[in-house]
Amino acid sequence: MTGLASARGVGASIGAVVVAAAAVVEYVRTDHLGEAAEASVAALLAVAVVWLAVTLPGSTPRGAAIGGAFVLAGILTWTSTDRPIVIWGALAIAGLAFAVWGRPWISGLRSLPGLGAAWTGLSYWLLGIVGALLVGHLTVGVQRLAYAGVFTLAALAVVAFVRSTGRDPSVGVAAAVLVGIAALLLAGSGSVFDTVREAPAGSGQLMRDRFWGGLDLFYHPNSLAGLGVVAAIRIGLDRAFATWQRLAVTGLAGLLLTLSDSRTGIVFAAAAALLHAVLVLRRRRPDLPDYRRRWAAMATPFVILALVLVFTGGYVNLTRDRLNTAATPNSTRIDAATSGRTDTWRQVLTDWQDAGVAEKLFGDATTSRAVVTRTDDGAPVDGPRRQLNTDNAAVGAFRRGGVLGAVAFLVGVGLLVAHAVRRRRDGTAPAAWFTVAVAAILPTIATEDWVLGGTNGAIWILLLAGEAFLVARGQPTTRWRGWERSTTRRSSAAAVASSAGS
């Protein structure tokens, strides 16, 4: 108890220093006591989120490190857009760690085709490599090989951890997600409560009413909202966590939905709330919290969602032009309701129709991430074209992996859903949080690339961790084929010797 009290004291002291530092920094920047006070409140919230993360029972250092690598990569994608060497450096370090943790590789590779998340997050990279080589784009092929290597090694590290320990790495991943959220809240503490906030250069400057972070530490608001919702699903639907932890992470998700003003996040959260209510009514999942007041438990997520809609402007806000292109001089007009998504999807189809057979089958090979460029992207007409994501997982798989990529994506989604709803052969039901996460994320396929992984793959790696724990747990582990064969020969020789002796 003395050691625990000492650790709490040290943690409280560090937290107090962080809060004070945030207030001082904001006061120096603005010379305004009110702004400094707001920054201290936001910093206190960030410290509380870190405390929530480190107190989660069942969290493991390796799970947290794997999840943290993806959270960091996602943040760097927006923070270091013009410095790709930083992103590649972080991925290289993560890849080395994954390579060490992912052994035995051959045995792990055999398990990956049985995981739906592996199909959705890895297959298009492999297909894209083939497509790039077929059209002679060697540089793109090499870059895709590097991406595929890092993310495949991450999947192998998850599988190896589950097999070797029998523990669930998703708790550690969720803890890393919370720490990443806390870092963004702390970095953006000076503008959390402002109506005009810091944002990265480019299209982010058109959405400064949404929370991105601050002090050159940014993350897309939609992705931030997704992290909050998936953390709430992982922690809020598991009785292994204390009531205060489940309530705290649910409230945090509501706050992030408000700050990010994310329509996709609201759809994700609403689907999760509805599915949670269904499971509570059915009472067939022993891992769900033992709610004393079931109706209150079912209503809580909906109440939070209602508050989010009130604070973000309700239905009118859900359909407004997020990029505000009408007010941007000399800009091209885009579809306002979808923030240009439908325009991007049409461009993907146009590019596919104009492509050769190899790219039709294996995906666009123009760039390593198969980004989309349009002449009507909402940017100033005389400015450079933006590199756009597809913001649709199905279209993204089609863009990156062609027709074969789209088929592989459908296979992956089918496997994910099957694992989320079916019982195992031993009668074990999938975890309630995993069922809800997979089912709730299906509607967001239409507007986000979350299940495709990549550098913004924190949600993907959490789903993969949950699926691996469900499917790969208890499977035998072998080092490599040569070791397997030699073991078989030794066993056979021992059996023959024993028979001769008898």
Automatic annotation (TrEMBL):
| Principal subcellular localization | membrane
What are the transmembrane regions? 6-25, 37-54, 60-78, 85-102, 122-140, 145-162, 174-196, 265-283, 295-316, 402-421, 428-446, 452-472
Carries keyword Membrane?
yes
**Entry keyword set:** Membrane, Transmembrane, Transmembrane helix
Membrane topology type, per the record? Multi-pass membrane protein
Tell me the lineage of the source organism: Bacteria, Bacillati, Actinomycetota, Actinomycetes, Cryptosporangiales
**Record-given protein name:** O-antigen ligase-related domain-containing protein
| The O-antigen ligase-related domain, residue ranges | 251-410
UniProt-annotated location(s): Membrane
> What superkingdom does the record give?
Bacteria
- Please give the InterPro entries that the UniProt record associates with this protein: O-antigen_ligase-rel_domated
Signal peptide location in the record? none
Question: Which organism encodes this protein?
Answer: Cryptosporangium minutisporangium
